[in-house]
Amino acid sequence: MTNPEIEELQNHFKTHKKTKEYHAHTSKVHSVGWSCDGRRLASGSFDKSVSIYALDRDRLTKEFTFRGHGASVDQLCWHASNPELLSTASGDKTVRIWDVRSQKSAATINTKGENINITWSPDGNSIAVGNKEDLVTFIDTRTHKIKAEEQFKFEVNEISWNKQSNLFFLTNGQGCIHILSYPDLQLQHVLQAHPGTCICIEFDPTGKYFATGSADALVSLWDVSELVCLRTFSRLEWPVRTISFSHDGKLLASASEDLVIDIGAVETGEKVADVPVEAATFTVAWHPRLYLLAYACDDKEKYDRKSDAGSLKVFGFQPD
């Protein structure tokens, strides 16, 4: 990525820096994500519900709310190629698959523990969910049956497949990335990625890179084929909770308890923009076609005013 390209991106965000706020829930939003066609944004909340918004040009409109989980919705993940299907992990020991077209739950899968992380394989055939006891459960999305369970002896944080869906990655409390073959779940590599807990992992849309965020406040960028660390992003000062690549793989957003979301250039690590926030940010998601970044912050109601509880925000609009 050349300097003119980076300048062009920096200039884009000078004119597209408006953030719009939407009151989606009655309590804290844990997870946000865009459907693969970018037409919808979903948010999952501590209030046990999932809100669905429709994007029309530069306006988000709330369409409906999915209810049914008996506890907090901790993470959500859309199908990689079907824009109608969404999966959610909840503390109620279930995984649900929701159909946006019919506006109801398409399947409920009972699991063994309180679920905190979920990922859908890029080929659409499997969902993996991790629980508080570090058990990862693999679900066949065609039969909605559990096809494997793997108990780990260390703290499992985020989980993800590579783009070919034949390798399964997980980040752990010892700062490592474990890479297993899939579907036979044989350990292939352990990468010592960070000195602190490895919290989040994300693959870029091109399939060339993945990034991890850590308690050491660093984001590291990795080459998928060589499994080497190419560079680190070090502008944040608190544990990195959430990361997201832009649709073209040029930008990487990362967020923490810092009062800013960092947007860096993937190829150089340079700062492109930042988004000021008023509280810790635990979820960010780039739109699959546009430079729009959805995010949600910790509740501020504990400190001052009630209005911020349960809201989600989208950065990257042009001022009216």
TrEMBL record:
Identify the stretches annotated as WD repeats: 22-63, 66-108, 191-232
Q: Mind telling me which GO cellular component terms the entry cites?
A: THO complex part of transcription export complex
An example Pfam family from this entry, by short name, is Beta-prop_THOC3
Gene Ontology biological-process entries? mRNA export from nucleus
Matches recorded under PROSITE patterns: WD_REPEATS_1, WD_REPEATS_2, WD_REPEATS_REGION
Keywords in alphabetical order, please.
Repeat, WD repeat
Q: Which InterPro entries match?
A: Tex1/THOC3 (IPR040132), WD40/YVTN_repeat-like_dom_sf (IPR015943), WD40_PAC1 (IPR020472), WD40_repeat_CS (IPR019775), WD40_repeat_dom_sf (IPR036322), WD40_rpt (IPR001680)
Q: Which domain of life is it from?
A: Eukaryota
Q: Which family does it belong to?
A: Belongs to the THOC3 family.
This protein's name:
THO complex subunit 3
Q: Which organism is it from?
A: Ladona fulva (Scarce chaser dragonfly)
Query: Taxonomic lineage per UniProt?
Result: Eukaryota, Metazoa, Ecdysozoa, Arthropoda, Hexapoda
